[in-house]
Known about the structure:
Elements: H1 2-5, H2 23-28, E1 66-72, H3 75-86, H4 92-102, E2 117-120, H5 125-131, H6 135-147, E3 155-157, H7 170-180, E4 181-183, H8 185-188, E5 197-205, H9 209-219, E6 226-234, H10 237-243
Parallel strand pairs: 1-6, 2-5, 5-6
Antiparallel strand pairs: 3-4
Helix pairs in contact: 4-6, 7-9
Amino acid sequence: MLRWIYPITCELCGESAERSLCPDCMAKLARVPRPICLNCGAPLHSTPESTEACPACFGKPRPYSFVRSALTGNEQNMQLIYRLKYHHAIYLANGLAPALAELRQSIPEPELFRQAVIVPVPTTPTHQQQRGYNQAAELARELGKMLSLKVVHVLQRHETEFNSQTRLSARQRLLNAYRSFSALPAYKTGRRSLPSSILLVDDVYTTGATTRACSRALLRLPGVERVGVLTLVRAELQSHGQQK
Ligand SMILES: [Zn+2]
Ligand SMILES: [Zn+2]
C-alpha cells in the first residue's frame, strides 16, 4: 500500500526499483578488490597471494576472527554513506544492505556463524539524540532481514572528551575507542544471553580502532567465543589504492 503511494526509485539512476538502489547500480558500486589481508580486510597490492596478512598487520594479534568490507572508499560510495549518516537518508540502508549480504560468501568457517546474531556498532547518546537514528543499526536491521539473523543491541558508546575521532592519531584513537565502548549490564551479568558467534556490523572501517574495541567488549561476555566484523565501506582504501 505504502509503495503504491510512494513508489521506490533508485537513488542513482531514478528508475523504479525494489530497493533504494536498483540491482544494476548496486552491481556497479566499486568493491574492495581481492586478494585481501585476512587480518584487517585491506587489499593486498604487491604482496604474494600466499601471504595472509598485510605489512601493517603482520604478526599483530587481533581480537576478532575476521574483518570484511564490501565497498571501496571512493567518492561515490562515500557520498552514499554521508547521505545515510548525516542527511537522514535512512532509506538508503535498504539499498546498500545487499553489498553487506554479499560478504557472507567470503566469511571463513561460515558454519560457525550460521547461528550468529548481528550486533551494530552503537553511536553516542548525543548523536543518537541529534540525528534520531544510528546508520550502523539501520544497516544491521536490513542485513538481518536478508540473512534471517536476529539483530541485538548489546553495546553502548560513551561520550568521551573527543567528540570526533578524525583528528586523533592511531594510538589515541585506539585508547579513546577502548574507553568509549562497553556492553550493556544485562549482557555482562549473563542475565541476557548471546550465542557463541557474533557478527559486528558498522558502516565504515577506517583505522580499525572501533572494530577492535567493540570486539574486545563482546568477547568478554559470557558465552561469546568469536566475533566477525562486516563493514559496508573501507574508508582508507582510497589513499592506499592511489599510492599502490
Ligand atoms: Zn539504479
Ligand atoms: Zn592487514
